[in-house]
Amino acid sequence: MSDETFEPRIVGFLCNWCSYRAADLAGTARIHYAPNVRIIRTMCTGRVDPTFVLKALALGADGVMIAGCHPGECHYLEQNFKALRRYQMLKHTLRALGIEEKRLRLQWASAAEGAQLAAAISEMTETVRRLGPLNWRDNWDEGDRYEQAIESLAREHAEALEVPA
User: Hey, is 95 helix, strand or coil?
Assistant: First the structure.
């Protein structure tokens, strides 16, 4: 696939109370933004487990955006601060895995900031487009060694669970 035809796949975890409503506002106001983000509505950014982000990337996403209420305006008090701490940890984890940390973005957007969220989505799409496809699965292809490792773990687990006679 050439860089000219590459369209990034981005997963967006958006807070129900602010960012999701900002995306809705952008849509009803007919504000144009890149259609590359597949939105998943969450009750709060504090509920976005880091494994959700890693799984999205492992399953083929080229980037992930987490968007929520501005700090201090969270409907669940301080959960966006929790999201900020997780975001910092995820950036560190991505660096350790050799993945560009620009593939992950944390965006604050209130319900009235549809234009700002649309701009952030378009900006992230362009950033990820410049980075190119992630192809994480191809980079981690272990062939049949994966099945062998799983079978070995299953045997070890079964042996550990056996009750002595």
Answer: helix
